[in-house]
Amino acid sequence: MAERDDTTVAGTQERPSDVLGGLAQMALQRRDVTFEDIFDHLGSSSFGIVFILLALPALLPGPSGLVFGLAVALVAAQMIAGYQRPQLPGRLMRRKLPSASLAYWLNRSIPWLRSIERLHAPGRFGALTGPVSTRGMGALILLLGLAITLPIPLGNMLPVIAIVMIALALLARDGVALLVAVIAAKLALGWTVGIVWLGVDVIATLVTS
Questions:
Q1: In a domain, 24, yes or no
Q2: Distance of alpha carbon 144 from alpha carbon 140, whole angstroms
């Protein structure tokens, strides 16, 4: 059974953007990479880094939203349960990802991540990022991960942004940034629910007309 610990999101000595930059370089040296390769590269990195890593590729074209959204939701459930490190099922860990596309999206995202990192004040109202709050954020990220799995055109963007904002705020233990991230998450979920509701209403109208 996996070890558990109340401190589910630990800080990292390297900035998240630097960690992902190293991962992008590793990906460029390979034809394809697996989640196992990625987790080995991250080593003991925290849930926050893993959430950023899993969320960003959900913007890739194709069925990536389903795969990465489910992965985000699974890891979020582990964070809620108090697991010490994120884990994925063996079959998913061995799934091959196109390294060129992964590196491309990571490199495109790094300048954006760095711009957000500069806005953080590590430790600001850090009490808001304690264990109880962290598990609550896990529940919110789980919902955002499920939102990513829905086949909504361009529907992944807002949930991905919200997940990244929450993860960065937790990594910096910045309570103010976390509150802003929660607002962004609620907006993203509201947008997703609204689109789904509209789609269901349109389908129902077509069926009954």
A1: yes
A2: 6
By the 10 Å C-beta count (0-12 exposed, 13-18 middle, 19+ buried), 26 is classed as middle
pLDDT score, position 43: 67
Report whether 61 contacts 54 (CB < 8 A). Answer: no
Q: CA–CA separation, 196 vs 206, rounded Å?
A: 15
Q: Could you tell me if residue 30 is inside a domain?
A: yes
Residue numbers of the domain that contains 45: 16-208
Q: Domain total for the chain?
A: 1
State pLDDT tens for residues 113-133.
888 888 888 888 888 888 888
The answer to whether 66 touches 8, Cβ cutoff 8 Å, is: no
Predicted confidence (pLDDT) per residue in 162-172, tens digit: 999 999 999 88
In a 10 Å sphere around its CB, with 0-12 CB exposed, 13-18 middle and 19+ buried, how is residue 12 labelled? Answer: middle
Q: How many CB atoms lie within 10 A of CB 74?
A: 17
